[in-house]
Amino acid sequence: MARREGWIFVIILVILALSLGVLLPEDVKIGRFERKGIQYGLDLEGGVRLIYQAKVPPELAGKEKEVIGELIAVIANRVNPLGVTEPNIEQRGTNQLIVELPNLSITDLQKERIGRIALLEFREEVDVKNEKGEVTGRQWVPATATINGVTKTLTSSYFKQNTVVSTGEFGGVELHFEWTEEGAQISKEVTGRLIGKPMGIFEGSGDDAQPLLGDDNQPIAPIVQAVITDRGRITGISLKEATELSKQLNAGRLPVPLELIGELTINPTLGEDFIKLSVKAGIIGIAAVMIFMIAYYRIPGIVAALALAFYGTVTLAIFKMLPVTLTLAGIGGFVLSVGMAVDANVLIFERMKEELLVKTTLSAAMESGFNRAWTAIWDSNVTTFIVCLVLYWVGDTIAFGGAVKGFALTLAIGVAVSMFTAIIASRTFLRMIIRTGVSKQIVLFSPYTGRKLA
């Protein structure tokens, strides 16, 4: 048992070290790896407001409402796939979109990508002939196939929304995709006739399409080696471009192009000093809880304070890795989960006190306290998870539901980590302390009750 506790303690230390490594550096960039500090929302740090004009073609006239609704859904998936970025996206007029994003560091390329259709069109080279029938050059034209008498162009609209980015055998970046059933038929015919020939990859369609560029800033046009019927991969692309493209392909393509026509800076709605005040209030609140736990529960209170510090470090590190954009609602979810983390320890320590009052040994009282309190902790946390799921779902169905989703997600993450710290970390710390000479002072392991302990 002691050896097992030793390994668990080492694992806890490793998790703590990794969490500190993620949390402490505000901004890190090592080669391809880039990690920014904790992101704050529009209400705490402000951000940028982007105004896009939807280029609705004549054939969709009268359907602007449906088009804008689809645009909002796709853009929300692009900029907020996990529900943690909390942007504001709304319609203005008949064919304009307002996209408000936290953080002012968005680049011009990222602004353009938000409105990018995210359609890859595969093309083949054909001869260009003059009026005399002489070949004067080569040009790229859409690669098409005839399926059931209908001519169709091979594009990423036939991708399943499960593209992934990985590293190839020789370290190169690869964007893997999978065809739908119809796409597989088109791909089979196109690649079958292009074996040994190049196949160009373009972004967009028609005259506005541009070649997809690789790491060397040259158009990507791989030589077709075999017939492709189910899945394929795009190589030679940069990691950043592949990651962005994969996100956009999985989020869906825009039904019409968007043009960025305006940009404004947004000031934080709660004031620039609110972050500092929130941090100060959080530190004071957590410190007050720790002092109370130590003063009332003594040594178990010290363990609870250590577990709470571990909990806060790990949770904030997870927020930074995702990354979660912290708004007032998100901070509320985190603070509530702190209370639940302490509540679990209170249940355990109160059960320990009851066991000691009936003259149970300290070790047995500790084990019984954890075992008997577990059912109550499990029930309360499961019901909280259910509420979080409902709130997260509701956030997808209402306007400005980002705050609701952010609250639900931060609370769920906090509760999950609190279960680990209360049951695993606290128990390991207490077991190790009980094996020391301090365990002879049983009074240090239970609050004062007016009755003599065993």
Any overview of this molecule?
- By secondary structure, the protein is of the alpha+beta class.
- It has a four-stranded antiparallel beta sheet with strand order 5-6-4-16. A four-stranded antiparallel beta sheet has the order 8-7-13-14, with no helix packed on it.
- It folds into three domains: 2-32 and 270-445, Multidrug efflux transporter AcrB transmembrane domain (Multidrug efflux transporter AcrB transmembrane fold, Up-down Bundle); 47-116, Alpha-Beta Plaits (2-Layer Sandwich); 120-253, 2-Layer Sandwich (Gyrase A, domain 2), CATH 3.30.1360.200.
- α9 packs antiparallel against α10 (362-395).
- It has eleven helices and 17 strands.
- It has helices at 2-23, 42-45, 64-79, 108-114, 181-193, 239-251, 274-297, 299-321, 328-357, 362-395, 402-434; strands at 28-30, 33-35, 39-40, 47-54, 88-92, 96-102, 120-129, 135-142, 144-147, 150-153, 164-167, 173-178, 200-203, 210-211, 231-235, 258-266, 325-326.
- Helix content is 48%, strand content 19%.
